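Quick start: read one record
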Amino acid sequence: MNPTGYASQAMQGSVSSGFESAALPPSFALELVEAEPQPNGCAF
């Protein structure tokens, strides 16, 4: 778990065509912080 959010690097592609590094925007998945359902005992 990272208290500063998601990492800015990801991988994009497929098994057949291969994968490449991809940059995620700082706003990636911000809405998930408050989205339900959250697991019980979630540290964040």
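The chain is about 0% helix and 25% strand.
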